[in-house]
């Protein structure tokens, strides 16, 4: 569908309205054409913040230090001084309301080590959410010609924020935020002015024009609408109100929801709580709790299928089949080859991976796993990165990979060995989790 008026009069314009319960596209205009996100970028910055809180890498009370680089960012900003700190929750409010660029950079540096690394993680997360045309180069949305997105991708991100973080989503409805002696109002003027609007984010640069993503939830209907490239804030808001008025009643009151599959980067795999393998082998209740109910593919707003399945689902499926046993096979002089024995199936040397290190001792006792990937080099890279970033017990652990087949898909499990008992393995897992890695510990 197309819309007259702004869509035809403004070459920067792009828009889309998506039924958030069914995924059906109710309206689109240049929805798949590249646009600059401006401060809509902060939606992904917030997504990664919410994810870090969910994973336990930070809490809402975590103090985030402001670097000289962050303090020097141009407005819109809180005006934080270099060396000062702000809590994670204050940062969330500042991003939602004031759209503070100094806070965005501080968050990026805290979570990613550098803004460039954080931008890489933002792009990686975008891909995992099915945002195929989005690339991030910074955490705030200030001008960068390589930082691009589409109206459709922004709608997907808006839906993902509500679906994946329903508790944190309430921040987007914040009308004002007090910090120090100042009170900052939300840039989203539709909050409180248009029935059902409960977020999400505004954005503007000269190159992008005036952008807005709105979520509407009323009378059993839910939509996410995107307007990009408005000539003024007022015309953008008027266009958004027009779209809401015209298409909200066309949205369904019924639908499966869960339109955006919650996937994770192989470097941040969410695994079950650390600990030994449960004695019981019936994981049906856990599988039900993890599964998305009534998930269906809608052709107009397709659900990305993460392939291969990694993280919780892969581990649970494997554990439901067997308890893994790691044994040495055909050991060369300078390295150890390990394989996972599945029931009575014999795995030859050609079917297994060499361990990453040159250690000649076969992994035994307690081991920890941080993920599974179809590419061995990626599994090895994951282990080396975890080793260098985590330190502590992991610095002395022996990394290795184990090949296994699941539903015809070969996966390489990334594991560490060499722990002195359960307590040390669990401590290593805690260290990994603090550095953003999922971890599962078991005794071999």
Report on the architecture of this protein.
Substrate binds at residue 201. GO terms for molecular function: peptidoglycan binding; serine-type D-Ala-D-Ala carboxypeptidase activity. Strand 14 and strand 15 (409-419) form a beta hairpin. It contains 12 helices and 16 strands. With 444 residues, it is of the alpha+beta class. Helix 2 (41-54) packs across helix 5 (101-112). The protein has 2 domains: 6-250, DD-peptidase/beta-lactamase superfamily (Beta-lactamase, 3-Layer(aba) Sandwich), CATH 3.40.710.10; 284-443, Alpha-Beta Plaits (2-Layer Sandwich), CATH 3.30.70. Helices cover 30% and strands 22% of the residues. The chain has helices at residues 6-9, 41-54, 68-71, 88-96, 101-112, 115-128, 151-164, 233-247, 284-290, 312-321, 376-390, 422-434, and strands spanning 14-19, 25-29, 63-65, 85-87, 176-179, 182-185, 197-205, 209-218, 221-230, 326-329, 337-340, 353-354, 366-373, 398-406, 409-419, 440-443. The longest helix has 15 residues, at 233-247. The protein has a 5-stranded antiparallel β-sheet with strand order 2-1-9-8-7, with helices on both faces. The chain has a 4-stranded antiparallel β-sheet with strand order 14-15-13-16. Strands 10-11-12 form a 3-stranded antiparallel β-sheet, with no helix packed on it.
